[in-house]
From TrEMBL:
Residues 264-291 form a coiled coil. It is a single-pass membrane protein. InterPro entries: MFP, Single_hybrid_motif. It is found in: Membrane. This is HlyD family secretion protein. The lineage of its organism: Bacteria, Pseudomonadati, Bacteroidota, Sphingobacteriia, Sphingobacteriales. The chain crosses the membrane at residues 46-66. It comes from Pedobacter hartonius.
Amino acid sequence: MENTEVPIITQERVVINEVSAPVEELHTEDIQDIVGTPPGSLMRWGITWVLIVLLGVMALTSFIRYPDVIKAQVRINAANAPKAVISRVSGNIVKILVKENDPVAEGQLLAWMESTADHRQILNLADKLDAIRNGHSEGKGMNIILDAPKGLRLGELQSSYQAFYQSYLTYSAATGNGIYLKRKTFIKNDLQHVSMQRSQLGEQGKLNEREFNLAAKNFERYDALAKKKIISSSEYEEQQAVFLAKQHPLQQIQSALLANENSYTAKMKELADLENQITEEKSKFAEALNSLISEIEKWKSQYILTARQSGTVAYTGIIQLNQYIQTGQEVFRIDPGSTLFFGEAKVRQYNMGKVKEGQEVLVKLDGYPFEEYGVLRGRMMRMTGAPYQDSIFLSKIKLSPITPQRHIQLRTGMIGTAEIITEDASLFKRLARNIRLLVDKKD
């Protein structure tokens, strides 16, 4: 048993020694290979290539540019934008005078709102009053006869027309064949009679003066004879009485002329008073006329919807006869067909410092997705000096012409987003600016 165990232990030791010796020699050869072999070109030029790549990237950042963009809400407007026709009273529409898309002229009637008055009578009265005012201002006579208030349905204007009608009657009497004209005719006739009487008195005065002169010469002869004692004193006194009697007609003529002059002056004063009264009545009538016309215009603005400009009429909803309309409700819209569109951008205060005139703007309309229709280009124009709202300023954008191939039809009131290109800087400039800001903050 002992002879068989010894050779086994000896054999194991021999195996261990044989294995351990070659391992030690193998590790030593690997280390010698690594240390003894010189590095390749990648190891020798790696740092250089990294530096070259970094310099290339920095050079590219100097050429690669992208813009700074400020976004703002934009609304499309026009130089001659469509005007809304708004109801000023609440009530039903009793008559619609136009159809949708009809061409209308400025001032054309569009619809009638419910009123206690007859619209046709009001419009007819307005035409008559305008004709009267034109004739009155040109100094022409009034040849238009107005109807009495009793036969009219003027509704809210009934009392105003009754007051005006009294002034109209007085004016007619002052300018037509009324009492004022008759009084004026009578006064002028009286003045003519007084003038004729003055002429007759003048002729009679000339005759009396000739008789007086003859009597004076005759008395001078008797006076000379009396001084020579040729005639008696009684005869002389008789001739003197005849001479004095010739003076009375002259005095009577002078008194009659004075009375005639007073009568003429009184008649002239009466005529002047009448002329002044006629002028006052004309002035009162003109004032009453203008006042009634103003009230009619106010009534028309409330109960008659009128086009504010020429263009094409469009309904702002379902508009039909006897439809109830609220005060302030938009009923029609008049589109003049203007093509001079521009944008109104709402720029917030914290961005307005970067926004300047002449900057390029890209407009993306909500109604025309830019992925399909593209964007509209434009330029920034002026900005308002006062805020449109709290911390919001309006700026005008001049839009570039749109080609027909774009199939974009601008309309007033369209909204979208405006991208204002404030600066087109390179990546290097932006990186340097950020580094400078970081350094400034640390300092």
